[in-house]
Amino acid sequence: MKYVDEFRDRAVAEKLAATIAEEAKGGHDYYFMEFCGGHTHAIFRYGVQDLMPANVHFVHGPGCPVCVLPVRRLDDAVELAERHGAILCSYGDMMRVPGTRQRSLIKAKADGADIRMVYSTMDALKIARDNPDRQVVFFAIGFETTTPPTAVAVLQAEKEGLKNFSVFVNHVLTPAAIGHILDSEDFAPGGPARIDGFLGPSHVSAVIGSKPYEAAAAHYQKPVVICGFEPLDVMQSVLMLIRQIKEGRCEVENEYTRVVTRDGNLKAQALVDEVLELRESFEWRGLGPVANSALRLKEKYAFYDAEKRFEISAKQSRETKSCECPAILRGVKKPTDCKLFGTVCTPDNPMGSCMVSSEGACAAYWTYGRFRNKDQAKQTEIA
Amino acid sequence: MSDMTSGPSTLTGSVDMTHGGGGRAMAELIRTLFQKHFSNPVLDQGNDGALVALPPGRVVISTDSHVITPLFFPGGDIGALSINGTVNDVAMMGAKPLYLSVGFILEEGFPLADLERIVISMAAAAKAADVTIATGDTKVVEKGKGDGVFISTTGIGVVPEGVKTSGDNARPGQAVLVSGTIGDHGVAILSKRESLEFETEIVSDCAALNGMIANMLAAVPNITTLRDPTRGGLAATLNEIASASKVGMMLEESAIPIRPDVSAACEFLGLDALYVANEGKLICICEEADANRLVDIMRAHPLGENAARIGTVIADDAHLVQMRTGFGGTRVVDWIAGEQLPRIC
């Protein structure tokens, strides 16, 4: 497949692996957080870890859109469909995420709630047009990548006078999360976890550009390389990070130049600015409340805000007990550190969000990387 | 590939409750539709059951129910699927499929013209697969209690002496073969789903494989395993075999045949072709020494021209299906969890 196969080329990968191994010599360990679930997925699906020297470690970041949505917001979405009888339109990998008492959208759907999987906000608008007597709510989740389509849907609904359409906004922002992670005690000197640099978001950066990470790179003295989602992108970015560290640089570099510019997509940014504004604080699963890290609809578009159109009840939402998703999302623990991993929690029966989406660290470990754990288990036994 | 010699449907109107009521309307539907297109000496006996004589050998029985949206799709329809699916299940057991029963559950309001298209397609598929539709049944459910039409088929076949294919006999060192490109059916169906329509020339691979299997077994009677990778795709079927045989497998990603357009569609839908359904492909596990010959036999058949050897059975206590990626790494090819869901970004 043209424009894809070139970034999965084995011969290039082998050369790059040799260069990385050479550059990484010197007795240091390197810990790089790949911010996005897309990176995690690529690392596992293509076996990138096999091509890395033993002293280069990947720390999985929180950039899996369904993973960071707090249980409470998911429970609220179920309520919109169940109590208010709305048609709830959701992206696919949200469907199986367990809420309180393991209740997911798929389970609510089986119990009779009208929940529909859509591929785009345009599908949700079509459902609203086709069902003028029903309320239709789009469950808007995701990072900056999925935010512009939400803004477009609201503008389009207004243009068409679609009175039965609204949006339940849960969009979150990447740079705020990076800052929050580095501010936490986990990553303080002497803390339990360590990050030497970031593989920065790819699709997100296509929208917001590479500029928004510059302040964090300088402030925290951590190099960032904007990194595409193909396996060669990941390897090239690792090489760029190692070189920055060896040269004592902490800059934002862009490996994903075929898509990302420093300024990003200005038109998409303008659409988002027109419709959405910063929330003072928003809870992230795993990170807790993070200041200025999420968006909501502006007052001007309040008519389309599901949180204002429907009364959403206060509820006691609960994470599954002993699920380590929060620590895994912060990069402090690995999936294999969780007692539930691979025992009660598997992709067939996920206890936490990281086991649901193929971008979640637990699902990637389990689905693609289990044999590594098996080998590790064997080594432990022998030892 | 439907046989249009019967011409377009002459029926008008739609299914109503009387068509399942046992009265004159039902008899008329049977006569003008099912008997007309399915007619053969066994079915035409007109009794409550079919009386048939089987050749000597062990008998295989397999049943499958078919529900699909949309009912008509590029490369096939629910009718062809219901015949080919069961013919294939019988053939994968090493048997020559002989007779089929068909059961219809029709939803009130379903257009009779569409029903006739489906029946014509079934007749053509049965003819192509050289099987006899021996008996059938029709029920009608109220509107809203079905999805247009459900078809359940059961097949009977006889296994020749010396043949013993089974999913629990794979042994380390054996070769894993596939009869052609994977994922065609699932992507063809997705391309026509209402919420997803995209333009493509991909058609379903829906086909009966008993002819090709007969050639394979004639040359190599001791084939270990034959399976059709339908729901859950290549990955699910290989995991089933690995688990039943208590072995592992090592696949070579670069050897697995995938059409570039199927690969592209999976790429933008966020799916993995290894998990996408096929309806006209088989997986064969055989002795290493027979692998090349079986690939050649499949390639000589019109339904197997892209056949390839894709991996090897290995010893593995964890019964994992692993794959050396085209990129040079290794990964597990796991069971699928529920349905494949598209990724967000």
Q: Which secondary structure elements does this structure contain, and how are they paired or packed?
A:
The complex is a heterodimer of chains A (383) and B (345).
Chain A: H1 10-23, E1 30-36, H2 37-45, E2 56-63, H3 71-82, E3 87-90, H4 105-110, E4 115-117, H5 121-130, E5 136-142, H6 147-160, E6 165-171, H7 174-183, E7 197-200, H8 203-208, H9 214-220, E8 224-226, H10 231-246, E9 252-254, H11 266-275, E10 276-284, E11 288-297, H12 306-309, H13 325-329, H14 361-382
Parallel strand pairs in A: 1-2, 1-7, 3-4, 3-5, 5-6, 7-8, 8-9
Antiparallel strand pairs in A: 10-11
Chain B: H1 24-38, E1 58-66, E2 72-73, E3 76-77, H2 78-92, E4 96-107, H3 112-129, E5 132-141, E6 149-159, E7 175-178, H4 184-190, H5 210-219, E8 225-227, H6 233-245, E9 248-252, H7 260-269, E10 283-286, H8 291-299, E11 308-314, E12 321-324, E13 330-332
Parallel strand pairs in B: 4-5, 9-12
Antiparallel strand pairs in B: 1-6, 2-3, 4-6, 7-10, 7-11, 8-10, 9-11, 12-13
Helix pairs in contact in B: 1-3, 2-3, 5-8
